């Protein structure tokens, strides 16, 4: 299992540079300092919040072990991606890969895909590095720095912990269906975003 | 319910980050700017800039374009604030003029702006680092004024990392849900009492010794948390609500500094006090609920923290308490010299 996880992690990290990633910058200014700005950014930015919720739902559906993996690997990857973005920022937006991420994750949740925990790790690393890089690059321009990134990662950790644990704790069969319905909504949001992006392009 | 021997080490790191962020600019008491219309083109001005905290913040209102400010008296130094009085003359009145507070964007504090018009209208704005200017002349409803007081209270607790750290220390000590309820209620009741006493002007505590005492209250919890880890007992561990009440009285004076600096009109104080306290309680309750939910989430996900990581929150309480105690005592002694 450990070799499987390691291979999955390497494969996931290797695919990230292939994504034409460019930074999108709409950061929140709470007036409470960069750490709270980072927390507010995650909670008020659907492009970042929805994939985090989707991954937590997926990990929760796959059980406590997958939930634990997502809980630690996803924020850690986001942090590494964010630090890379702070160091080597680029300017622009990346709506298509974000929309594809919504559709992929939402689809996996909606179908209650019986994937191995190692695939949850792959998704956590890939998404974390990608979104983290975009955040880091945007924060570099906004001069929010590592404290802002720390706020995002802290909020991300809390969101994944709460959502994944909620799903793991669900017992009645209908509640699992409710989670899948949430996944279908995320797919719908992804399709809308993709359509809008392609139309605008 | 088990004692929270350290279920949230990452929370401890988050505290360190916020503490690192707020330490160089730890002045969250708001400034206050009041304009009273004397005649259609003339306003008496009252400006209060918070001072006497751990750091001096340099903020000042910028006279709107087309206006002239005369300040015949020198600025006065009152407890907790520098006060400037003067007369603002604006040809054609202040409607549609832009008022800005210079330097606000580099702080984490707010400025409450109030304008009393001759026809009895009251205009109120909360300037924040993100929005350090406002266009004057708009009407302000009682609801808007109320929301700004709730915001002030909420912000005061969020930026008051020392208050939150004290609450975290209490959460690490209590061992049952009933005791948790009693402890949080005792802390809330105690700080509400002194918040009211200080805001209504019945008592006041100078800021430097108050801040040092608040830091000492956090440091006090450090050894108690270690005792709880070791399975030992003490008065604090047996009756944490008593300690919460006693130190809550101190913390209430700290919260009050968020309101007393402004020197609000007497008629406004009951509303401001109530809503400011509502904001503080909302922030505190949100924090406690978040901690409890995270604890439950870690339990459901079967997270097993390494021993050292599990003890990080306790160490964060103790070391930050010690650091602030030393820092604030030095500031206090420096002020006495």
Backbone shape of chain B: elongated
Strand content of chain B: 15-25%
- What is Rg of chain B? 22 Å
* Class by alpha and beta content of chain B: alpha+beta
Q: Helix count of chain B?
A: 10
- What do the pLDDT scores of chain B average to? 82
Total of domains of chain A: 1
* Mean pLDDT value of chain A: 83
Helix content of chain B: 40-55%
Contiguous uncertain segments of 5+ residues of chain A:
14-25
As a percent range, the share of helical residues of chain A equals: over 70%
Largest sheet of chain A: none
Question: What is the tally of beta strands of chain B?
Answer: 10
Task: Provide the gyration radius of chain A in Å.
Answer: 16 Å
Q: Which stretches of chain B are low in confidence, meaning pLDDT under 50 for 5 or more residues running?
A: none
Largest interface (CB < 8 Å): A-B, 25 and 28 residues
Instruction: Indicate how many domains the architecture of chain B comprises.
Output: 2
How far do the termini of chain A sit from each other?
43 Å
Question: How would the global form of chain A be characterised?
Answer: globular
Number of strand elements of chain A: 0
The largest sheet of chain B is: 7 strands, mixed
Description:
The complex is a heterodimer of chains A (201) and B (337). With 201 residues, chain A is mainly alpha-helical. Chain A has one domain. Helices cover 80% and strands 0% of the residues of chain A. Chain A has eight helices and no strands. Chain B is an alpha+beta fold. Chain B folds into two domains: 9-26 and 160-336, no CATH class; 31-152, no CATH class. Chain B is 53% helix and 17% strand. In chain B, the strands form two sheets. In chain B, strands 1, 2, 4, 5, 6, 8 and 9 form a seven-stranded mixed sheet that branches. A three-stranded antiparallel sheet of chain B has the order 3-7-10, with no helix packed on it. In chain B, a hairpin with a 2-residue loop joins strand 5 and strand 6 (81-90). In chain B, helix 1 packs parallel to helix 10, helix 4 (177-199) packs parallel to helix 7 (240-260) and helix 5 (207-229) packs antiparallel against helix 10. The model of chain B has no long low-confidence stretch (mean pLDDT 82). Classes of the chains: A mainly alpha (201), B alpha+beta (337). The interface between A and B is medium-sized, with 25 and 28 residues.
